[in-house]
Amino acid sequence: MSAVTEVDSQMPDVNEHHESIWGKALYKFRRDRTGMLGLGIVLIYFIAALGVWFGIWGTEWSDVEGPKWGAMSAEHWFGTNIIGQDIFQRSLYSTKTAFEIGLIVAVLSTLLGALLGALAGFFSGTWIDAIILWLKGVLDSIPFYLFVAAVAFALKGNPWAMHVAMVSTFWTTTGRLVRGEVIKLRNFEFVEASRAIGVPQVTIIFRHIVPNTFHILLVQATIVFVAAIKSEVILSFLGLGVQDGVSWGLMISESTMEVLAGFFNNFAWASIFLFVLVMAFNMFSDALQDALDPKKVAES
Amino acid sequence: MDVVKYAIRKLVGGIPLILGVTFVSFLLMVYFGPDLTFEMLGKNPTPEQIAEVRKELGYDRPFLVRYSQYLKELATLDFGLSDSTGEPVSSMLIRSIPISLALVTPGFILGNLLGVLLALVAAYHRSGWIDKAIMGFSVVGMSISFLIVIIAFQILLSSSYGLNLFPVRGWNVHSLYDYVMYVTVPTLASVFVALGYNTRFYRAVIVEEMTRDHVRTARAFGIRPGKLLYKHILKNSAIPIITRIMFSIPLVIVSGSLLIESYFGIPGVGKVTFDAITTGDQPVLKAVVGLTAVLFVITLLVTDILYRAVDPRVSLK
Amino acid sequence: MSARDEQPLLSVRNLVIEFTTRYGPVRAVDGISFDVYPNETLGIVGESGCGKTVTGLSLLRLIPSPPGRIVRGEILLQGRDLTRLSEDEMQILRGDEISMIFQEPMTALNPVLTVGTQMVDVLTRHRKLTRKQARVVAIDMLSKVGIPVPNKRIDEYPHEMSGGMRQRVMIAMALSCSPKLLIADEPTTALDVTTQAQVLEQIVKLQDEFHMAVILITHDLGVVAETCQRALVMYCGEVMEVADIESLFERPRHPYSRGLLDSIPKLREEKLAELPIIPGMVPDLMHLPPGCRFGDRCSRATDECRLQRPQLDTSATLRNAVACFRPLD
User: Fold this and answer.
1) Residue A15 has what pLDDT?
2) pTM, whole model, 2 decimals?
């Protein structure tokens, strides 16, 4: 036994009633200041997004009533863009776009990854596993941007093409991790015991094994959220991203030419909004990983 | 001989994958792709003209025939002529691939080398302020969108609002000096972002190796720290590090170059692909996707063989 | 057996080792003292968590530093205080004058290097030998630990060997520079019973041959009985009793030692209704009682025991001593 584990085994269990991984995690997380800060910032953004969603603010994002490339002023806090739209309004509206993409893609891809990963893991070695693994390999090998383009074509320019493409490719990492964990869990005795009592396989998978992967799913969901938001930026630049409304990615793409002429507001503010949210989310995600398992359970 | 047999077996095993990738891509891009018929014709085309163009573009043939035709093209590396420029696809690729390689290679090497070095420093000073600083920098690198970094560097280095040292876009390379001029800004941008992800990952791997029992054993026998580092930590970290580097190769060449080249107007494979996407140039798309799939499988294979060289526990079975 | 007035090879005095944990500083070892004489085998016995592994590591200054450190105390190796040496000086000593072997043979050796490479590395580190010469010595060591066909085995990787064989390799490596002291931390715990016996036998035989002292750290009293001449019993970071083997097993003086011995399942003439255990639980290191740490669980404890910490009574020598106000004699 190493010195540190020897000492550690003597440590008291502070939350004596919470033996579970979640209780301990919550305790550890609450003490992680960076993580709490990250979470706080994310919540602020989320409230902003909700406000836009309910029409409380950010509604004037498409109004063309300001001067061309207006400077930052009392009327237009962040100035205006090339056709006179208020940059602040647009930045604010984009929080809704960002959360929409992030949440939809994160939730759906995590569900898909959990489902396929659990099936592949539970039936590992059989044709079910082989097919799912093959599918994963195929999706991983197609260059992401090409795939999005292809899906956009196939769906004939539907604004949800981007989301579909993202969900279809982002589930693979989650799926791989879940599969690994399920294979490990499958060999545990409680599974043998359940089988011996005659519990049907489906129940075993979904009632007993999958809940033991929730910590992986949670962390992966946060990672996918960030990946989705970041991908949108580049996709919008390539013309494959957000089609209606506005997003930080679109704002930045609009700004590519004007920055060389010295007009930085569009670029700066969209970048700042985006960077702060992503950074906060990353801090939150890190703290979450540390709290749930000192050995990181996820990958980026 | 063992290695060759192993390689062949792995390549053959990769065929379902190649088939899968080409099938899915073909389905999505070519079958559902834009119909260029009317682009090629003028106004008020007659039905005969339409039929003729369709025949030329190959739209009239059934799906499976078109797909097997595609596979044949892939096997013989003959992709026909570009729909938009009329140039043979193969020569387009031959022209643009070296440019892409010249563009992404310095960034790739630097990004990984620096990543490993920074990770070593961070791991050695674990929990100290150096470690925290390096990790902080990584998180920032991971959180800024690549696009933002590109634009920012452009402003800082290539515009009159910054240093104005480097060309804004393009690729007019006729000498080493030209090369350095054109490659620097894109390289700096990609290294900045890559470092974020790489340093974090490599640090985690190195720390994990540092805390292993056999490192403690070596210390207990008085092995000097330098030797410890090399023989016991780095060598053992090699596997996950190599895996990551290898798997990022197809990613970097295709996806990475796509963005940089479109932005800086550099005529490499990425730009060719991007143009093909926007104009719906099927022969080019088919070629790029097919080759990427093959590249991926070859990468898998090479990675596997590298494992064997570094980790004696893995056998060629 | 060593003469009564021989000088100890190793003397530990008042050693305190502290770890910084998220709950505050914790003393894994709280003021222990003991001597090791040349050519003897000293057992350090105790439950998991009592500080015996930490003690072993500290002798080679291998405590991971953060979070642990030696707060005070002396570790005298033939007069030199090891706590005052520089890291460089310690590196020269490790594997040469003092060697240590560990519990898990599976993970203690580097999986990507051959056994030979690892052994040669140690030899060339401490002796002026070429790698070829070192290899010859290594093969010889392998045969000394009872590994058949050593010239073939030397080029194998650890995963190609069984656990028992790996442990023998560790022993060979540890002895290759003829150390004065071998520290063996639970060397047989991870092995099956038959292999255990073989490995222990090997250690005993080699100890004789190499004229070295051995500190055997274990929780298994059976192992101690077979191989050690003296043993010390640790509990909660302190030494409770130190005695030579016969005395310890036949006439244990500390109530804790007594409890340990009683709880070994053994063949008895009259069957007992229950296996005797020591009631209560080990106190947690953050909330230690002011007095004797075993107090709560001791049937003989008095108020004095609970309020005052008993020290090792060194009126005799540290060969045989007990830390108790009411020892069992």
Assistant:
1) 38
2) 0.81
